[in-house]
Design a protein that fits this description.
The protein has about 200 residues and is α/β, with parallel strands linked by helices. It is about 25% helix and about 20% strand. Helix 7 links the parallel strand 8 and strand 9. InterPro entries: NAD(P)-bd_dom_sf, P5C_Rdtase_cat_N, STEAP_metalloreductase.
Length: about 200
Amino acid sequence: MSYSIIGFGAVGQALARAFARKDIDVTVASRRPPETLMQPARAIGPTVAPATLRDAITSDTIILAVPFWEHREVAKQLASWQGKTIIDATNAFGVAVEDLGGQPSSAVVAKAFTGASFVKGFNHLPAAVLAADPNVKGGRRVVFLSSDDDSAVVPVAALAERLGFAPISLGPLEEGGSLVQARGNSWARLIFEDLVKFK
């Protein structure tokens, strides 16, 4: 299984740290040329490899960590995303509700990636918390996942476990996904909730 993070701002780098902590190879890409990402990538760890967007989208699992509307530019790269898993870590804070056509923001993103297995996840924690060790006082930091396809959640939950997190499925995008999304200029109930799961 190969992994990419598209977007190398605060959230993208936080996710890259999670991969590096577990020595899991991950490709990172952004609007900038790969050579401009080299220094921060090296600072994170040797398993973090900058690449072009075209190279990054060849991965099996792709995490979107871009500003919300930039998902459209990524989606244009392929006519069909069949066989790929897209993890949507974007947030639509400040995006007008009417611009989303009344849909949850994740449903808008999902529609752009035709054929992909789509999961909303890794978006409810601030970047600094997401970057920190998820092992907390003998428990594991929770990450919420939601999808309209239960089978898509399984490998993403397994990845979250490998990264040291405790995944919790919230169900479909319309219901569970709405608990971890911005709506206009307000945040949903579970955004920023830093929860720890103990066995």
